[in-house]
Amino acid sequence: MRVNLAYGRDGLVVDLPDDRATVIEPVHRPGLTDERTAVLAALGQPIGAPPLRELVKPVHRVCLVFTDSTRATPNERLIPWLLEELAHVPPANITLLNSTGTHRANTPEELARMLTPAVTTRYRVLNHDCHDDSSLVAVGTMRDGTPARLNRHLVEADVRIITGFIEPHFFAGFSGGPKGILPGCAGLRSVMANHRPANLGHPNATFGVTEGNPLWEELRDVALRLGPSFLLNVTLNERREITGVFAGDLLAAHRTGCEFVRATAMRPVAEPFDLVVTTNSGAPLDLNLYQGVKGMAAAARIVKDGGTIVLACECREGVPPGSPFERLLRGADDPASLLARLEREPMQPEQWQVQILAQILRRARVLLHSTLSEETVRACHLEPCPDIGAFVREELARRGPAARVAVLPQGPLTIPYLAAV
Fold first, then answer.
1. Is 1 a residue whose pLDDT tops 80?
2. Is 169 a catalytic residue?
3. What pTM was computed for the model?
């Protein structure tokens, strides 16, 4: 059986034994036949909100939030179409804000590719900077008392428009919706407070759960303090074609989009597998290993205790090098000492991803097929896997004739779950 894994821009074909492999993918939805018309129609007939053209007056200050280069949102299509709908607003009244969260800023060249040169030359485009206190405004506190600080342009706007795409998320339930505000446009301390170990360790902080998930509920509560925000979220298939458009009230439109995704992404399995081969959904979602933890987390849902996970994640931008994520991983000898260090020391940026990775490593062996050096992979407590097909065949032979492998070609775009649980 030849399986095409979502890996980088071009994919990766692996050869697996037909009689011992189970491929688990989202239900395929074809792309919309006319994406632009569908987007404009959704803006004109939104869920739980007035039509965007009526909502936004020419005198309004508009903050339009878009996702950064680590996300698959088709910004180069969505943003120009959305700005068509705002043609009655002077460009000087519109700020486009890149919701980088705690990620690096995107370069002018990247922004031009993401939004089109026509947009970046006509409108003010800014990168959110979670470290720049002068660009942040307090909107109350997080549940642990930490100030909830958000980007000034977002807070002070008369109209907020939050764009993005909805996919399963390994601790926030689903992406999109209020995540475009926090962590997307929040200060580092606020993000850290939301991503604190107690929230991440809650059983409802997982794929597919929003209500009852303390981490997501806190994102929601902070976002609502700003007043109404208009949402434009889309869903995508494996070819990055738009399959659904969800516009309107921040929560109502997001809820509708999440149910649309749930119907395609939730895939039951009867029992856990000895091996699970997964991805991080290909470019741009597999730009680095930090993002790749999401693919591991999807596989961990259906791997046996003591089983093996193989992640195909290109990591074109490295771990990334010098990131807090890499420093934390290199600063411990094994997963147990990693978790002990996180419990012992004050919270640090990106430790949430380290916590999840360490928890997975305590249950399963994890191998990585990537462009990273062998030394880097091992320093991150993983094992290099140059040939996935060969490794799977060897591991199945070692484990015996009853051993089985599951394959998640689209990684965390699929939410596998044990049907008996």
1. yes
2. yes
3. 0.89
